Amino acid sequence: MFLEIITPDEKIFEGEVDHATFPGSKGSFQVLNDHAAMVSSLGKGDLKMVITHNKKTEETHMAIDGGVVEVLNNKVLVLAEHVEK
Amino acid sequence: MANLKEVKNRIQSVTSTQQITSAMKMVAAAKLKRAQDRITQMRPYSQKLTGILQNVSSALDGDIENAFGETREVENVLLVVVSSDRGLCGAFNNNIFKAAVNLINDKYSYEQKHDGVHILPIGKKAFEYFSKRKYSVVDDYYDMFQDLTFDKVKKAAEFAMEEFREGNYDKVELVFNEFKNVATQIVRTEEFLPLQSVVPKDGEAKKKDVDYLFEPSAQYVVNELIPKSLKIQFYKAVLESNASEHGARMTAMGQATDNAGDLLKQLKLTYNRTRQAAITKEILEIVGGAEALASNS
User: Fold this and answer.
1) Cβ-based contacts of B221 with chain A (< 8 Å)
2) N or C terminus of chain A with fewer C-beta within 10 Å?
3) How far apart are the first and last CA of chain A?
4) Any idea which fold B30-252 has?
5) CB contact (8 A) between residue B48 and residue A11
6) Does B149 touch chain A (CB under 8 A)?
7) Beta strands at B184-193 and A2-6: parallel, antiparallel or unpaired
8) DSSP state of A36
9) Spans of chain A, pLDDT less than 50
10) Which of A7, A41, A42, A69 should we substitute to test contact with B (largest number of B Cβ atoms within 10 Å)?
11) Is some CB atom of chain B closer than 8 A to the CB atom of A24?
12) pTM given for the model
């Protein structure tokens, strides 16, 4: 699925990921391929995404301070006000 | 006729002024580019946010409660006046101040009488202007153009929103310059709070027929989104003004450079004329002297 993370100042990340974990306002949750359409608000916390590159899986963590995530047709869009890499 | 040396000095000083103004023009052009980039960077965020907001509010069928939409009897007003940090940008700042003062005199003269109008200046120029005069100024947020980021602007927006929610202000208005093109800025007054409609006007028409899951609930998401969208509206105003400032400075400095060029042309003409006159005078004297000698012998 395709993940996009944008803030008002810049585009933080854009690309294919295997799955990603988000810090929802009411607890963290994971989004896999073919997830149903969803809009969720995010709280402060850790965003994890996993990318497979040449059979090697790579995990990336980012700290975000609240935002929203929209999942639609394997496109995941994260709008956050501040992201710490 | 002017003194030769005086004219020469004048030419020198005008030339160096011209160098400065043309350098400032180029700096402004570079900064304008950066300011415009910021606007383009912000645009996807703002568009997507509006998109999500539309989806959510259509799911709620317009039945949205929010603390920022409350219309109250206006007693206390906060005016956010966006100016620049530096001068030498033509009438840019003056236009803003004039618009703000007119707004106070026309619309809020009653509130102004019992000190109900507060000003939140953004940019050093507005801070200086309003604190020198008899206005109540909120002076915590004016310094943000040095290294402008969303985080800094956010704080000012959050202040305005928080004070509105607590009932300390019944209305918040933005006064800023809108960037039309490099040479044109339009002074705009925008009602920031109370919020008119949750979904921004530009694009209410399209509705997506997707059944979204809302986590934790649609109402919760809307309540999260509204402040975000307000902050973006605020940020947009600041960015527009920032781009306008550099545009205005570029035009002003371009004109100054042209004027200096015209002045130089005239000065050079005067210089050459004076030089010519001096030479002619000298020759006349020599010829006169020679003739006097010849007639003596």
Assistant:
1) 39-41, 68
2) C
3) 21
4) Pyruvate Kinase; Chain: A, domain 1 (3.40.1380)
5) no
6) yes
7) unpaired
8) P
9) none
10) A41
11) yes
12) 0.87
Q: Where are the domains of chain B?
A: 30-252
Residues of A with Cβ-Cβ distance to B216 under 8 angstroms? 24-26, 40-41
For residue B209, the model assigns a pLDDT of: 64
What three-state secondary structure class fits B161? Answer: helix
Q: Which of B24, B89, B161, B250 is catalytic?
A: B89
* Residue A19 phi, psi dihedral angles, 5° rounding: -155, 165
Interface touch B213/A37, C-beta < 8 Å: yes
CA A24/CA B231 separation, integer angstroms: 21
The confidence score (pLDDT) of residue B249 equals 95
User: Is it the case that residue B20 has pLDDT exceeding 80?
Assistant: yes
Cross-chain residue pair A11–B44, CB shorter than 8 Å: yes
Say yes or no to pLDDT of B271 above 60.
yes
Give the dihedral sign, CA B190/B193/B197/B203.
Answer: positive
- Per-residue pLDDT band for B218 (boundaries 50, 70, 90) equals confident
Sorted by where each starts, the structural domains of chain A and their CATH numbers stand as 2-84 (2.60.15.10)
CA distance A19 to chain B (A): 18
Q: What is the pLDDT of residue B297?
A: 67
| Residue B36: closest CA among B209, B247, B223 | B247
Determine the pLDDT at residue B9.
Answer: 95
